[in-house]
Design goal:
The complex is a heterodimer of chains A (92) and B (499).
Chain A lengths: L1 H12 L32 E3 H10 L14 E3 L10 H4 L3
Helix pairs in contact in A: 1-2
Chain B lengths: L6 H11 L30 E8 L8 E13 L14 E7 L8 E11 L3 E4 L6 E4 L20 E11 L6 E4 L1 E2 L7 E3 L12 H6 L3 E4 L7 E9 L6 H4 L21 E11 L16 E15 L11 E13 L4 H4 L6 H5 L10 H5 L3 H8 L13 H9 L16 E3 L34 H9 L45
Antiparallel strand pairs in B: 1-2, 2-13, 3-4, 3-14, 4-7, 5-6, 7-8, 7-10, 9-11, 11-12, 12-13, 14-15, 14-16
The chains are: A mainly alpha (92), B alpha+beta (499).
Amino acid sequence: MSMIKTLCISSLAGLLLTGCLSSGGGGGSSSIDQGGGGGDGGAGGSTSFTTLVKSMFAATSNTTEPMAINGLNITFDDQENEDAFSDLLSQP
Amino acid sequence: MDRFYTRSVLAKSLLVTAVIGASLGSAISFASSHREAPFITEVPKVDGTDFYMFRSYEPGREDTVTMIANYLPLQDAYGGPNYFDLDGNAIYEIHIDNSGNAEEDITFRFKMTDVKQDLQLDIGDAGSIEKVSVPLKNIGPIGPSAGDTGAVQVRQTYELTVIRGDRRTGTADSVMNAFDQSATFNKPLDNIGNKSINDYAAYADDHIYSAIIPGCMGDARVFVGQRQEAFAVNLGEIFDLVNTNPLGPRNAETNDLADKNVTSLALEVPISCLTGTAATSNGQKVIGGWTTASLRQARVLNPQPMANGKGASIQGGAYTQVSRLGMPLVNEVVIGLKDKDAFNSSEPKDDGQFATYVTHPALPELLEILFAGTAVAPNMFPRTDLVTAFLTGIPTLNQTEGVKGSEMLRLNPEVAVTPSGLQSDLGVLDGDNAGFPNGRRPIDDVVDVSLRVAMGALIDDQNVAPNNQAPFTDGVQVDPANLQASFPYLNTPLPGSPN
């Protein structure tokens, strides 16, 4: 799972949301869901909001353009998970 | 007072031009750019309100251009205890297009940093003293020197970067403080009041820095800080279905912004450091300018701000533009409500998406509806007059050869300055070619000018534009007493407590 997550984030960091993402429930776990939007977005897959946000953080840079999100089918699976972003908040 | 002797000259020029390219932008309007789009009302610290760009008229500085980008609107001077710091997670930028292709060639990027110190008082009985942090921003006098900050808990500094080429991937160099060669500049605290800052003007002036811009010969100056709001408009009446007489006296209404402050990012740069290949048909250089603000794309609220050393939120991702301002008032009343957020995130090179708002503007039609029998909208479509005045520039004055139509403030800095005190607030429309829309000075009454142009002031044929000589006005003029004749030109901010 960790490797999958790393791969997803790496892919997103390159502004190519290839539809990794989409998770069920807590902890920011993610799964591959082919066909999600990229660039201006293509319809098809779903994208976990939590993973999307973490991917954006992973792509923090002064020299890149923001991720296009209009074509994404964003799912909100972590609304009851208070620890969804704990790993982000605990980073130095 | 109202002279229109230049109108026919302008109109003839417009007939020659009639440029409607594939990429156009926007135009005209009413009340500058305060809280003009739905999203920007949620992030006022990055809400650009006015952008000025003009050949400097301070005596001895005529070889420079001054750019002033105002942010954070409608500040009540008494807004303590936190007042009106800028956003330390944002970037504020001023872009210059000097090649006429609607893309930035030079960007000046301001990045703020919070500087904090935990001021504590010893409280308690002897032997059981507790050190307790104070709740106020300052617990003693501040100034008059910029370094007099011992009594201040939170202040801001900033770095200024010049980027040549693309604003994100171009070549970036730090602008240096000419005094100590550092890359850090101080922003004064807001004008809390006369007890905290006895001589605010002197204190603020100590934050005007001579600056060294790498690759630029000559002195630059920079100032970031609170100023008195310079824009004037009867905001309440205007947005109440223009609840005023649009043909009444020019200065008979209340300036609703008269008691407000704003935060200015002011930069004075040698003309030679800004101009490029863009030039008019008679070879005079022209620059286009606009300001933007950007935030990180993602934000996570911190449910425990004190637990991990982080603040109330953390931000990450690429910088994402949320505010844009070039020509005044555009997003306020020209762009349709549904597209206002899109406009704020857009770039001039993509302005074709907004072309209809200029070629077929809604504002004149609204005025005709609101003032039936008085206001008659020009019957000419597409509105080539507006395209020229606001998207391509005026031929031989500030329109560049081969210009790509786009919304930005265009300035021909070779036009001689009009000294302070002699400037016409109707600018080019009144024969003062050093004023709006050849750039924009603080004195320029862009509301009246825009109203008149929207109603056809640049169209010669009165059959097409029956109101082409009507002196439309919002009834408020900029008060020259609220301006300064030297950098940073906008006045000392109003104090939070006047006594």
